Amino acid sequence: MSEEISVCAPGRGDAEALARFAKAMPPHDLLFLARDIREPKVLEAWLRSQEEGHIASLIAVSGGEVVATIAALSDRFSWSPHVWDIRLLVAPDARGKGLGRKLLGAIVDQAIAAGAGKLTARMTPDQAGAITLFEECGFRAEAMLLGQVQAADGSLHDLAVLSLDPAREAARREAFGD
Questions:
Q1: Per-residue b/e over 90-128, b at no fewer than 16 CB within 10 Å?
Q2: N or C: which end of the chain has fewer CB within 10 A?
Q3: pTM of the entire structure?
């Protein structure tokens, strides 16, 4: 992997690189996603939603290859349009270099600017690095959904839900100088 990494919003021209990235991710890392981004229809819907402004997403690119993605999305027609779900994926060989933290900070800022009143993130509880990253950025454990996701081999996995209240976090930082 090249050391120079650029971050930008994904576009139609990134579809093939995104497809390669998704197919190269360990299947277990994809369990928290509501949809399988390895499927062409799902990838197409993601890029269309990005173009239409329904989601905020970023990709990190190194040497022409996608090495990380992040998205924040809200169902604006639900009872909870103020809740934005964050989905972060970092390629195994790009982890531990601060890329996830950079992307998370940027997408949180975008979601708040777009009106997010609450941010959530989901992951399997064994993804300790991801949980630590989100907690260091102010997210707190909110729920554990037992047997929530099913892997391709039929095994069931729990899903941890972490959340961040942007107003509460801002007040905490102001009060304690973090």
A1: bbeebeeeebbebbbeebbebbbeeebebbbbbbbeebe
A2: C
A3: 0.89
Other C-beta atoms within 10 Å of 22: how many? Answer: 21
- Residue 98 per-residue DSSP state: S
Enumerate domains of the chain plus CATH numbers.
6-176 (3.40.630.30)
Instruction: Using DSSP, state whether 65 is helix, strand or coil.
Output: strand
User: What region does 28 belong to: left with phi over 0, alpha with psi -120 to 50, or beta?
Assistant: alpha
Token representation of residue 153:
């081999």
| Cα separation values, 99 from 39, 117, 148, Å | 25, 25, 28
How many Cβ atoms are within 10 Å of 32's Cβ, its own excluded? 22
Output phi, psi for 11, to 5 deg. -135, 180
